[in-house]
Amino acid sequence: MTGAPQPLARFAGAVSALLDADLPEAGLLGEGGRLLAALVATDGWLPDAFARPGPERYRQYLLHRDPQERFSVVSFVWGPGQSTPVHDHTVWGLVGVLRGAEVSQRFRIADDGGPIPDGPAQRLEQGAVEAVSPKVGDVHQVFNAFDDQVSVSIHVYGADIGATRRWVYPLSGGRKPFVSGYDNDEASAPFVLELEEHVV
Length: 200
Ligand code: FE
Prior knowledge:
There is one protein chain. The strands form 3 sheets. Strands 1-2-9-3-7 form a 5-stranded antiparallel sheet, covered by helices on one side. Strands 4, 5, 6 and 8 form a 4-stranded antiparallel sheet that branches. Strands 10-11 form a two-stranded antiparallel sheet. The protein has 2 helices and 11 strands. The protein is of the alpha+beta class. Helix content is 16%, strand content 30%. Bound molecules: fe (iii) ion (FE). Fe (iii) ion binds at residues 87, 89, 140, 142.
């Protein structure tokens, strides 16, 4: 694959500039959220290779990794009815719905380590953006809102999220260490979009 789609290249360049500005987290999530909302406002730029669902479970494709590993951009692809486990991120993150819709349920962690739903589930329609972080709420479970169509969201995180050590929280209690990786790691690494020379 040669070159990154213009909207993605522009987004990655703008997030890089935002991080250079070294804003407090609230400012970063606000400004970054506006950039992500603009990115997911139009569909059609994400190559099909990064929008393919898996038969068994959701897929996550690395779109861009900051050369300094300050952030990563990932497409999440939900087959009909698919969902994540309850999980955290340990870093700031922004989720923007590009296609379809998602349902996000926040959790808090009880004294015994088990996850407890925190407020009602929220439905995120196409174009909606949501923030996560240890400060604003970091534990959630995400579902495709549809059982008969694929949904796609674009995520940006304040780390190389596929290599970040974090946790899943089984509903039965306790927590388990978790490193997500990427579905286009290794075998399909050439599909990772190389942005550096395209960012203006
Ligand atoms: Fe998440």
